[in-house]
Amino acid sequence: MRNILLYSALAVLTALASASAKAQTPSLVPEALVQTATRTDTPSARPNALVLFSQSKPEMRLIGEDDTRHLTFYLSPEQARDGGRLRLAYTNAVSILPDGAMMSASVNGHAIGDIPIRSPQTVLATELPIPPGMLVAGWNTVRLRAQQQHRVDCSISAAYELWTQVDPITSGFLAETAPDAADLTSLIAVGRTASEETEIRVITAPGELARDAGRSLEAVQSLALLLGRQDLRITFTETEGAGPGIDLFVGDDATPGLNPAVRQVLSNAASGLSARQMGDGRVRVILRGANDQALSAALVAALNGPLQPVLASRHALTKQPVIDASSSRRVNLAEAGYETAPFSGRLFRTSFDLVMPEDFYPGDYGSIDLKLNGATAPGLAPGAQVLVRVNERAVTSHVLYDPEGVTLKEKALALSLRAFHPGVNKVEILAELPTEADQACDPSARSGAPRFLLLEETGLVIPELARVGRMPDLASLVSRAYPFNHDRALDLVVDAATPGRLSTAVTMLSRLALASGHPLPGHLVIGSPDPSSATNALVITAGNHDLAMTDTPPAKGGRPAAGRIDGLTTASVVSSSATSPAATSSDSEALLNAFQVQTAMDADRMSWTTRVSSAIQHITEMVDRWLQYQDVTEAQRAIRPADALVTLGQDRRAEGAIWTVVTAENEADLLRGTGVLFDPTHWGALKGGKATVLRSDLSIITETPVAFTFYPLTDLSLGNLRRLAAAWLSDHFAIYVGLILLFIGGFGLWLGYIVPRKGVRTVE
Amino acid sequence: MKKSLLSATFLARTTIGLMMATQSGFAASLVPEKLAAPSTTIEAKAVVEPEASAPDAVELAALYYYAKEGQMERVEREKKRLSLKFPGFVEPEDLFQPEPEFSVDETPLWQLYDADDFAGIEAAVTQLALDNPGWQPSQDFRDKLARRKLRFDMTTAESAGDTAQVMALGKALDPQTEMEVDLLWTLIAACRSQGQTEAMVPVYQGILFRKPGTELPDDVVMTTLQMAVQDFPAKELRKVIALLSEKPELADRMKDLTLDLVRRDIADFAADAAGVAETPAPEAVLAVRRSADLGHNGADQTLLGWYYLKLDRLDDAETWFRKAFDGKPQIESLKGLTLSLDRANKRDQAFLLVSSHLDLLGDKADTFLDILSYPFQTASEATIDPKLAELYAKAIQSSQSADHAVLIGWYAYNGRQFEAAKAWFAKSAEWKVGEDSVKGMALSAVQMKDTGEVEALKTRFGATYPQVFAELKKAVAPKGGSTGTVGEPAHDNQARYVVSFRNKRYGDCLADLERIAARGNLSAEAQLIRGWCHLELNHLAEARDAFQFALAGNVAKGDDALYGLGLSLLRAHMTGDLEALLASRPLSEARAKELRAEMLWQKAESAFNTKDYEVTLANLNARLEIAPEPVGMTQMRAWAHYHLGNLKQSRAIFAELNQIVDDPANRRGLAAIQDRMGIKP
Fold first, then answer.
1. Tens of pLDDT, residues B7-49
2. A555 touches chain B (CB under 8 A)
3. What's the mean pLDDT in A146-169?
4. Which residues of B touch A118 (CB under 8 A)?
């Protein structure tokens, strides 16, 4: 009896014993999971820190019926271990059909779930839990794929109405664990302001703006590189900010002129680079050092120390849709992150960035071959075709119509090298896939049957490129920071040390550092650039007409400058959009244009010679535009001086220095105009020789330079010289045609005149 | 005397042990039924999602947009699309009027959401609603908020030790689809704490057996299995592992559970009172011995102690328990060691061991009552450590042990501390009247020369225990001596089950009560607490019985018992019984009204479901007479009128409701009525 009683008591005790035994067997229980379970049990360990995506707003927009975006975020080892949720706050086009519209998300290649796209009225936040084990310490990649259809319109053009915009301020990874408040790497998660910018506020001493701005250049650029964000804005202020952003303190508490609060912050900070989370997406970053050398050394130590994983783990990111075209090779789309998937919509669309070297010379001397591999389903209607667009312009197409379906095997489509420019080029492959049923667009007859399949074996064959740097070229400036991306010193010139000018200058410098991938050795100069210096300069002026960019002089024997061809047409374009007070201001040029429009003579009353001359001129312009891949509106749009808010241009000086100049009438214009210019959507699309932000509608007009100056050749190989010659001749087709005619004429002369007279010697 | 005390204690333990063994999974199975019995596989039926009958704001957004933009062709197409999707769709009246726009930025709400500031959210929503008449937070925000609040409440309750609340909140989780596994683990821990193995089963199954494509990562499955080792017998777990072994990678990883399963085998064997558990294989024991030896694993050492104790190898048992206790003194190994020593007739050593570790006993002292009573039984002349006496007294009260109360009463009596002795004898009689306690009370009264008390006792117990009073005259006064001071039972020392109940540890509460019940009948008060504990754990039949016992025992808080009984009847939807109860027994007015209102609602709901709309209305009307009517009930009233053909009345109710709350259900009701009345919108 007593035994039974005793054994019964064991039931309680052995359960406890077993529990204890399990807890003390570390080899059996994954430590990370055990910690996860215990950490999440306590509310204090659940601060739900939002780690924002690095990408800017334009990179978070999913357009068309089926689009994919890759977003990245950085996690500390603790955050990766403890997991969390993916928060996607989004809004979408009202025309997206709610039924079946879906955004699929995967993290580091693991699918984590789908969310319906149903928020046309407001930003809707949805969260997807990420199961433990999917995250990695360092950079993580989120792949978003949106599949969406139009509610009522089955036309091809309606597909462009479909978009889903992920909100850059409230989307990201909601970590279970907040980073250590003093962890340097936690600055990567800094919040964005309400204007969707990442703000770095450099804290300066009263009256020492220039000194402190000059000291901060390296630190600001390093932060820009760490963050990797395209929506950076640098500002200078004497007090800490209140909202999201980085408050950057540079210097030492012994630095003269500091206000007490700043001195307090610096004196409490450790030497070197340190950071502290201040809540609400605000981070205080302090670079403490007694002098410039100490500051540089501290920065280097931090970048090689605690911040090293941030830079090092970037290469571990999953494939991004970017192709480097600096060498001749074949690249398949799979290497750019494209994944084969049947497409059942009407307008297939996939895109990637093709990065040309900064000294790439565009021209008609060769082409990039797109080798298409794919198939269409039977039943497509006439009009089905593949289109390839480069930098928003259609370059080539191929008809896909075949009632029984088309199979494409290494079908080559040539993309002329003239369509590209140095730096980042956006290449889009579109397939228009109409069917007969689309005409009726009956909602009850919608079909989800696939129409097109583009295989990831589709590739690009990149040829050898003609390489010579040329100037001006804003595309190579913004995408590769050319010509500043070498180790040569750079003067950062502002005509006066004001917060607005310095903000513009340093913001632009940080953008160029991002483009080049390393900090630029900038030296701040207040005043005017030295005309006798051979140092490249980035010049920011407001109201300094001496430094304002002059129009590029007409090329010798070249074609007339764009925008000066047809003043009448230009005037009408301007007047049509001239609704702002600035545009309707009294302007003699506008008055003259209006007078000429009103008094223009009917064509049939003009003389015969005038009409022939006009026709020839028109045809010449058309051919010219066609050759240059220009739009009619772009080639013809002119800018009234009073309508120019901010101008960005490049100029080569006598000593060989390149001046890149940003000019405005005053500081307010400078800030407003550069706000538009630095918008990630616009900044990456700059090209040509000069860009002007218009006061009237804040649009950006880029102008193709009428002539370039070239940097010394670095590649003197025969192949490069041949390609350069071909490229140059393709640019100067009149000379090319003239030479051909000359050769033909010479041959004719030889054959018709010399040979009959001199005879032909025969060998017997 | 000594034997009888030990027997009583062990009897109680036996009952608890058997109960725990039953609850520990022998009745519950982790394997889903359809997997356990493949021959009776039930073909899954397609679940048809109920289609919304009217378009929501998202569906209508484009219609308004196209109308605003003047895109009439698209307006027509969109109307056609909506008509196809929502049969009976009618064009909104305000389609071409300026649409109400709420450009309310919910970002501040999300920021408060991130900070778990629910009061702040409530205030912010109120303010936004005031600033934007007609606005309400997006459905998504409301859903997320509810979800977030659930997590917050669960973690808060869990860290506060309120496992009953965790279990109550956990009902909102769907274990089959829940992706936040830590919440499910929290729920499992709460169930374990409440001794609710049955409640754990669906949670475990939800984690371990998911539909293809929705499976959780292997790490999660492994961790869950490791948890399950605590709650289910190894035999059951082996079945689960066999089913999960279809995935080769997981099968490989599950081999790491072998040692855990062996431990569980040994534990099951050691705890098996019925003798049905298989004896663990020697190799298995060897594996645990190796772990215990090499890893100095105290838990394994304790486990081996129980194993050898079960085999009656007392020396080995003592050795392993002592190793564990010497490594890290813990109450489990102390318990094993004292039992081993006790069984080896080394009770004096056992007592020395316990008395030198009194601080370790804490609130578990009552489980050592027998050992603690050793000096009170054997050394009446010796002085007992006052700390020991105090701990013993506290343990007696905590366990409500009548036998030990008598024992300490005799100790006090022999030491001529008659007041204390009388109090302890009275306490013993309060818990369980017996000859010893009556005799002790009477003798104490005699020694105190309280003849009135003696007479009162004689009147009360004379018929039952005549020999006690017959022997009173022969009683010799105790000599007294060097006994230590014994205090009277503390008035504020609550029984353990009461403490467990107040701390919402309902499983512990029931276990405590079972322990007491094993020693005799439960008092009416104890039955009342038992009823509440069962009710909290949703054991409705047991709760009903307990409340009825309490009522039968004329519990002091009769109103509480009656109310509890009413609630348990309501939860079981036994409205007829409740009606009879309310008619037969008086209950306080507020509680009676509350029970009656809920009863009438249940009756109305039941009638509505059986399409007995007149009865529905009758019950709703009866309810309305005693309590205000929430919106949902009024909607039921309106639909009942609608089905009875009282369209005007129904329409009036819906229209009135529509004025009060913005609910699509009201609009749907109005649309249906207008349709039936042939009124075109």
1. 333 333 333 232 333 333 334 566 555 554 433 323 333 333 3
2. no
3. 90
4. 58
Closest-CA distance of chain B to residue A515, Å: 33
Phi then psi for residue A181, to 5 deg, are -55, -25
Q: What is the pLDDT of residues A274-310, one digit of tens each?
A: 998 887 788 999 999 888 888 999 999 998 888 888 8
DSSP A424-474: EEEEEEEEE--BHHHHH--GGG------EEE-TT-EEEE----B--EES-H
Please state, in angstroms and rounded to a whole number, the distance separating the CA atoms of residues A613 and B282. Answer: 109
Beta bridge partners, A528, equal: none
Are the C-beta atoms of A24 and B327 separated by less than 8 Å?
no
State mean pLDDT over B588-614. 90
Residue type at position A385: Q
Axis crossing angle, helix A588-598 with helix A567-577, rounded to the nearest 10: 110
| Residue with tokens 């420019």, as numbered in its chain | A421
A118 touches chain B (CB under 8 A): yes
Flag if B267 and A15 touch (Cβ within 8 Å): yes
**Interchain contact, B230 vs A174, CB within 8 Å:** no
Q: Summarize the confidence of residues A121-132 as an average pLDDT.
A: 82
Say yes or no: B257 contacts chain A, CB-CB below 8 A: yes
Helices (H) and strands (E) counted in chain A, each on its own, are 19, 34
CA–CA distance, A689 with B67 (Å, rounded to integer): 45
A163, pLDDT greater than 90: yes
Pairs of CB atoms within 8 A across A/B:
231
Q: Residue B476's pLDDT band (boundaries 50, 70, 90)?
A: confident
Would you state the torsion angle of the CA atoms of residues A540, A542, A544, A547, taken in this order, to the nearest 10 degrees? Answer: 30
Range list of H helices, A494-631: 499-516, 567-577, 588-598, 608-628
The tens digit of pLDDT for each residue in A483-534 reads 887 767 889 999 889 999 999 999 999 999 988 888 899 899 998 888 888 8
Interface pTM, i.e. ipTM: 0.72
Please name the residues in contact with B645: beta carbons below 8 A apart, sequence gap of 6 or more: none
**Secondary structure of B220-256 in the HEC alphabet?**
HHHHHHHHHHHHCCHHHHHHHHHHHCCCHHHHHHHHH
Q: Which residues of B touch A5 (CB under 8 A)?
A: 7, 10-11, 13-14
Q: Distance between CA atoms of A608 and A620, rounded to whole angstroms? A: 18
Within 136-195 of A, beta carbons closer than 8 Å to B belong to 151-153, 169-170, 174
Element of type H or E holding A62: strand A61-63
Q: Which of B223, B260, B294 best tests the A interface by mutation, with the highest count of A CBs <10 A?
A: B223
In this prediction, residue A48 carries a pLDDT of: 60
Pairing of strands A709-710, A66-75: unpaired
B48 Rama class: left (phi>0) / alpha (psi -120 to 50) / beta? beta
| Cross-chain Cβ contact B306/A13 below 8 Å | yes
Window 378-417 of B, Cβ < 8 Å to A? none
Taking only residues 196 to 255 of chain B, the set having a beta carbon closer than 8 angstroms to any beta carbon of chain A reads 216-217, 219-220, 222-223, 226, 229-230
Q: Which of B169, B306, B325 to mutate to test the interface with A (most CBs of A within 10 A)?
A: B306
| CB-CB under 8 Å, A6 with B343 | yes
Across A523-538, b (16+ Cβ under 10 Å) vs e yields: ebbbeebeeeeebbbb
Q: How far apart (Å, rounded) are the C-alpha atoms in residues A594 and A591? A: 5
Q: How far is CA A455 from CA A341, A352, A372, B146, B479, in A?
A: 8, 15, 8, 44, 105
The answer to whether B195 touches B21, Cβ cutoff 8 Å, is no
- List the single range of A532-536, B162-166, B514-518, B642-646 with lowest mean pLDDT: B514-518
Q: How confident is the model at residue B228 (pLDDT cuts 50, 70, 90)?
A: confident
Taking the C-alpha atoms of residue A186 and residue A275, their distance in angstroms, rounded to an integer, is 8
